[in-house]
Specification:
By secondary structure, the chain is of the alpha+beta class. It is 54% helix and 12% strand. A hairpin with a 2-residue loop joins strand 6 (108-119) and strand 7.
Length: 718
């Protein structure tokens, strides 16, 4: 097969042209191999550890020869600080033996994980190592490896053994695989040039067809801009302030995004890995969230084939600023993730709506088609952001049925709903299969003993679970303070009106409207049945509620009779006012919590410094904190939410959380004492006064003791 530029030329020239092409292919393959081996697969030693070492430099020494000595010529270095971090050392030259020098003074460290990273998905774990004579003890436990040096250590060293030949074999194998892959790929193109060009033409035609489909929806920049600005206004307080919530202090110091994989939320892993390495920050995540929520709303309007009239703008605040969204967006790491989930789920339901499963009797049940495959990928990404988004897709699908059945009753037959539910089930099934496949693959690449999801799935009494789920749904739609922290009574009136409309149309038109309406109302809570019923899930997990309330409000203000329309409009207006009032109280509660914790942290640090005349901000200070300090305020708190919670009170008192928070706001030299030492300090704490009394902070035996309350925290219980 000759190349395209050789057509019409003599055979001798065609052979020469083909030879040049083959030489180019071979050279590309060799270059790919060299790039992979020399640069891409160059190994890196990755050490995840926690230390009490003050700021300094850590060194990794390698040997040029197996029986040679360590030399500065074969040394890598990186900075080391107090606290948890990832130390990364490049290994351009290596043998089986590595030496690690962390500091030239005594230290205590806990090594959580040591790996040689060949490429991101190929990691070789190191489990055993030894220390020099100045290393006092190396203790292995399930959480990691604890290393303690002698008190007079001046040059403690740690030694690791790696299999250099095995690493080389892996590098060669990966490089050869990609080099040969390039060779095979080009040869396939060369021998099947006409077919390849045909495939490209078909792909281009397919993409052009998708472009024309998208063009039909008439997406306008001005429409997006309006929704974006409205979202910006509703979230102006969060955008313009750093609002730290419980758990933000941990994510700020997170050294690897693999924690998301333990939660089964692999979309978060990729976002934090490649987009927001530091997730705990305001402004940019908020702006991205506003943009994606605006796009999500535009997609939902088009899935419902709604005219862009005054109603869609009037109801937009319910969709983009419902109180449930405040609870889930309390954590900065969740903000972009949630917006991605809404956008992907909305795009999936738009793809689903293209098939028009509701009104077309000719649409048969298909086990697989292009729309299902596209939706499966979109749903998998959404579920990978937050598992509850599967409930949002189900709510969307039920809402579409109810909306179409009420708006266009002549196109609906009661028998359609069975086929419709089967088609919805197929989309959900393929989405879950795609999500689980990716989740299992990533769990294989990044194994962990911890699984966040497993803790929610329980063996429960079905009757109790169903009863609890119904109670939670009732509390939600009635605007109960047990859900929102404040009463939103107008939401109860809105719910009654919307349910009455659904029952009315179901009675006079199609009974399937009542069934689909019931499913619409209960869908956001279906996960409760497998997790235990009432209060089994945090309030933030009901991500489908903003859409359900939005749709109910749409029903209420879309009546043909003027009087009922005016009444509905007034009810929705009151709901919007109550919503904004709730958000204002949440903002106040959060701000009070911020002021309380900042003032307490400042006072504690000042008292710590006063208790020791030789206190130095450049030296690590061992701290032990007994008890907890709560916040008393008139503003609301919400069960299962961190709203208004204190870092000095959460978990019944958690010294690690308290000191992480203090480190985050600028007090980095505080280090918790060992767990065994905490137990030993209990008797001393019983003699001390309670904060803020004199004697509530004491410097004794080289450590600082702080007593916040009479009742002990979880680390100091006998």
């Amino acid at each position: 097969m000759s190349c395209e530029s050789c057509y019409g030329k003599p055979k001798s020239n065609q052979r020469l042209c083909l030879m040049k092409e083959n030489i180019l292919i071979v050279c590309s393959s060799i270059i790919t191999f060299l790039i992979m081996y020399m640069f891409i697969t160059s190994p890196v030693l990755d050490i995840d550890l926690s230390s009490n070492i003050k700021n300094g430099t850590a060194y990794l020494y390698t040997k040029k020869e197996l029986d040679g000595g360590y030399s500065n010529n074969y040394r890598s270095e990186t900075s080391i600080v107090n606290g948890r971090q990832n130390l990364k050392f490049e290994l351009p030259n290596y043998t089986d033996n590595l030496r690690l020098d962390l500091a030239d003074n005594p230290f205590e460290i806990e090594i959580h994980k040591i790996q040689v990273v060949v490429i991101p998905f190929v990691r070789l774990s190191i489990y055993k190592f030894s220390g020099s004579s100045q290393v006092k003890a190396i203790n292995y436990n399930p959480e990691g490896i604890y290393v303690v040096t002698n008190e007079d250590a001046t040059d403690p060293m740690l030694f690791f053994d790696v299999d250099a030949r095995y690493i080389d074999l892996i590098r060669l194998s990966i490089s050869c695989f990609f080099g040969l892959g390039i060779l095979v790929f080009y040869k396939l193109i060369q021998f099947n040039r006409i077919k390849f060009i045909y495939i490209l033409d078909q792909l281009e035609n397919k993409m052009h067809g998708y472009y024309l489909e998208v063009k039909k929806y008439r997406f306008k920049l001005s429409e997006f801009g309006t929704y974006f600005v409205m979202a910006f206004i509703f979230h102006a307080f969060e955008i313009s302030n750093l609002l730290l919530s419980v758990d933000d202090e941990y994510s700020a110091f997170r050294v690897t995004p693999e924690a998301w994989l333990n939660d089964g939320r692999w979309t978060g892993f990729f976002i934090e890995k490649f987009l927001f390495v530091q997730p705990t920050m305001p402004f940019i995540p908020n702006l991205i969230s506003c943009a994606l929520m605006a796009l999500s709303y535009m997609l939902i309007l088009r899935a419902h084939v709604l005219t862009r009239d005054w109603r869609v703008y009037f109801l937009y605040p319910i969709y983009v600023a419902f109180p449930i969204l405040w609870f889930i967006n309390e954590f900065y790491g969740n903000m972009v993730l949630v917006a991605v989930g809404f956008f992907m789920t909305s795009l999936a339901i738009l793809v689903f709506s293209k098939k028009n499963y509701i009104a077309k009797l000719t649409v048969r049940i298909q086990l697989i088609n292009t729309n299902i495959l596209i939706s499966a990928i979109l749903l998998a990404i959404a579920i990978g952001a937050y598992q509850s988004f599967i409930m949002l897709f189900l709510a969307y699908s039920m809402g579409l049925y109810v909306f179409n059945a009420i708006s266009s009753p002549k196109k609906i037959l009661d028998l359609y709903i069975l086929r419709y539910l089967v088609n919805v089930g197929l989309y959900v099934m393929y989405g879950l299969i795609t999500y689980l496949t990716i989740n299992v693959f990533l769990k294989y690449l990044f194994p962990s003993n911890r699984s966040y999801i497993d803790g929610f799935v329980k063996n429960v009494d079905l009757k109790v679970a169903v009863a609890g789920t119904i109670k939670t749904a009732f509390d939600m739609y009635s605007g109960s303070p047990s859900i929102f922290g404040v009463s939103i009574n107008s939401l109860a009136v809105l719910s009654i009106m919307a349910i009455s409309i659904i029952i009315y149309y179901g009675t006079v038109r199609h009974l399937s409207i009542i069934l689909s309406g019931l499913l619409l109302l209960l869908t956001p809570f279906l996960l409760n049945i497998i997790t235990g019923g009432a209060d089994s899930l945090p309030t933030r997990s009901y991500v489908a509620i903003p859409y359900v309330v939005w749709l109910m409000a749409l029903f209420v203000i879309s009546r043909k009779k003027l009087l009922s329309n005016i009444v509905g409009l007034l009810i929705v207006l009151i709901v919007l006012i109550d919503m904004m009032s709730a958000l204002g109280s949440y903002a106040a509660s959060t701000q009070i919590g911020q002021l309380h914790d900042r003032a307490l942290a400042d006072s504690l640090y000042e008292r710590i410094a006063d208790s020791n005349p030789n206190f130095s901000v450049n030296e690590v200070s061992p701290i032990d904190i007994y008890g907890y300090k709560s916040i008393q305020t008139v503003y609301p708190t919400v069960k299962t939410s961190t709203l208004g919670a204190s870092f000095f009170d959460w978990d019944g008192g958690n010294i690690y959380r308290m000191l992480s928070y203090m480190k985050l706001i600028g007090y980095p030299n505080l280090q918790p004492v060992r767990a065994t030492q905490m137990k030993e300090n209990i008797e001393e704490f019983k003699k001390m006064n309670v904060w803020p009394s004199t004697g509530s902070v004491k410097y004794i035996n080289g450590m600082y003791l702080i007593k916040l309350s009479v009742n002990p925290d979880r680390n100091h219980r006998d």
